[in-house]
Amino acid sequence: MTESILVINAGSSSVKFQLFTVGSDDGVELRTKGQIDGIGTRPRLNAKSAEGRVLIDQQWPANEVPNIPSALDRSIPFLREQIGGTLPAVVGHRVVHGGPDFDAPTFVDARVLERLEKLAPLAPLHQLNNLLPIKAIHHRHPDLPQVACFDTAFHRSHPEVADRYAIPDALYREGVRRYGFHGLSYEYIASRLPAAAPEIAAGRVIVAHLGSGASMCAIVAGKSVESTMGFTALDGLPMGTRPGQFDPGIVLYLLSEKHMQADAIQAFLYQECGLKGLSGISNDVRDLIASSSPRAKLALDYFVYRICLFAGMLAAAMGGLDGIVFTAGVGENAVSIREAVLRRLGWLGVKIDQVRNAQGGPCISAGDSPIKCYVLPTDEELMIARHTLRRLRERRPS
CA–CA distance from 60 to each of 43, 49, 57, 71, 185 (Å)? Predict the structure, then answer.
């Protein structure tokens, strides 16, 4: 019987999943893709085959799917039907923060789970939600192997000087350092460059993962050397609701002058800032592009401005620049954002091809541009599936 791998990427109100089959050459092939979203409000399970055929589209009252474990209870029977009533051979999970100890995909047991839970304050929007499906599956199927794949792992190739803060050494030793995130996305893009953009694959490339969460990564010959995100996913670029880089003295001001408590500051920084805070309208770039409000324009101008500032920083970290790649929801779809960024980076030698950019690429730079620019869709779930199969084979050689 053909082995299968289930990949789960859980958020606060949704569980995305992809089901892969394993080929004879140990390659993985997508079979089913879907999600159950609106958990606790308007729960809906929908899934399609790899060819785009609708396999299920079902809704329930809110009280029937109030949380992630109950969402899995609705999803797993459907997924088992797709593989002949059996369970998958292994389940792979996206886990945002691996901390200082986890630098590679790891089988999850009770001890690993406990250590990962302790990192929740460093990724409050993600970490516990990522771990909930692992717990729920272990409770129902304790013998089913599960692998955690970390968004921080790809960046562990950084030199120490890139990961340090200018703080006492003891804090660094206990894990207060720059980790970087979106690593699964960056790793996938790096794996695609030899085929999709061979002229820059071995060179110095900035990858801009622009979505509701946004960051940028400097990649040299396929390895991460610098990233805009740091200790937590608050740092770097402005995001949908997160501020990005700002003076930590602002936190002291909120504490001393606004008398805010730590939990209120956390909620403020993760949910009320970024494009939402700047525009006063929305955290969604599509809404801001469609708006005629001056504040919407300010938010988008600020987003572009900061992307370009960090592009200069990342180019400096690499000692030059050969290519730029846009990926994720905004990077792959927002034509006007890409154009604004590349025009502002003209001083680096970037020359945009407007027609190619409007068509979505993949190459969007002019033929004579010394810096080659691309749009490449990311696929974190495929990266997780590959890692998960590799770990399974290492444990159980074929």
Answer: 6, 22, 11, 10, 32
pLDDT of 125: 84
Distance CA 150, CA 102 (A): 8
pLDDT digits (tens, 9 = 90+) for 350-378: 999 999 999 999 999 999 999 999 999 99
| Orientation of helix 110-117 relative to helix 127-140, angle to 10° | 160
> Which tokens belong to 321?
């620049």
Helix 262-271, helix 249-256: angle, nearest 10: 130
* Predicted confidence band of residue 397 (pLDDT cuts 50, 70, 90): low
Could you give the domains of the chain? 4-150 (3.30.420.40), 198-380 (3.30.420.40)
Q: Is 184 left (phi over 0), alpha (psi -120 to 50) or beta?
A: alpha
Residue 87 in tokens: 């369970």
**pLDDT of 93-129, one tens digit each?**
999 999 999 999 999 999 999 999 999 999 988 999 9
N-term to C-term CA, the chain: 14
151 annotated active-site: yes
Q: Which of 26, 143, 151, 284 is catalytic?
A: 151
Task: Please say whether the beta carbons of 113 and 131 come within 8 A.
Answer: yes
Main-chain dihedrals φ then ψ at residue 58, nearest 5 degrees: -135, 140
Q: What is the pTM of this model?
A: 0.94
The amino acid at residue 231 is: F
Residue at 69: amino acid letter:
P
Give the separation between CA 351 and CA 22, rounded to whole angstroms. 42
